Amino acid sequence: MAMLSQHEDNKLDRMQASRARLFKEYKEVQREKVADPDIQLVCDDSNIFKWTALIKGPSETPYEGGVFQLAFSVPEQYPLQPPQVRFLTKIFHPNVHFKTGEICLDILKNAWSPAWTLQSVCRAIIALMAHPEPDSPLNCDSGNLLRSGDVRGFQSMAKMYTRLAAMPKKGEHATTLTYSRMRYHVMQAAQTLVNKGYDPEVIDIMSLKPFDLYTIGNSIKKTHRVLIVELGHVYPLILLRMVDDISDWTLEIN
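Given the sequence above, the corresponding structure tokens read:
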């Protein structure tokens, strides 16, 4: 019984240390939001060991213009052990499994160090997007294109999937504004609506840096309807600016 109690105490100590580290990173993330506009990390409201990240595709790559969602599952032994990270957004990349989103990256395995943070992991994944390693592929089709020297073929496929999965959707029937981890759910719902014959337009607010009311306004003027899907932080700001700046347009606000 004493040994079991000691084991439980050690486990509790590890969890408390992990929570303290994650809480420290959470506060740092809040400060980094302005400093690093390419990354948005969000902690789950009810579980500090579950995080979501939105990362912008690096410039001068087939992923430019896309916003990609990552899911983080942080172990209780963090930061002694690395988080499990996968792409939720479909991406055509040699080092990302096309179906599961699993990422082949050394820092998430044997090269992990407690000095890494969730924010720096996101930065490493962005670097991997810009500099793929075709010799250790999880997506063999993508890796084979690069290994055979067919860079144009690889870029064409990567751009196509970026356009289909990671870019805001244009439509005619309604404007949907979203950001953060709600973006993934909105894109899934938008595809369901398309399958039923509707044509929604999705605008990711994160992609509008600086905040671009002109783009939002033109979309609403076209569709005459706006649906705002968010986490309770941005909605009042958007609504007030719409009322002030687009008051002469007829809107249906849900």
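Residues 250-254 have pLDDT under 50 and may be disordered. Try to locate this feature in the token string yourself.
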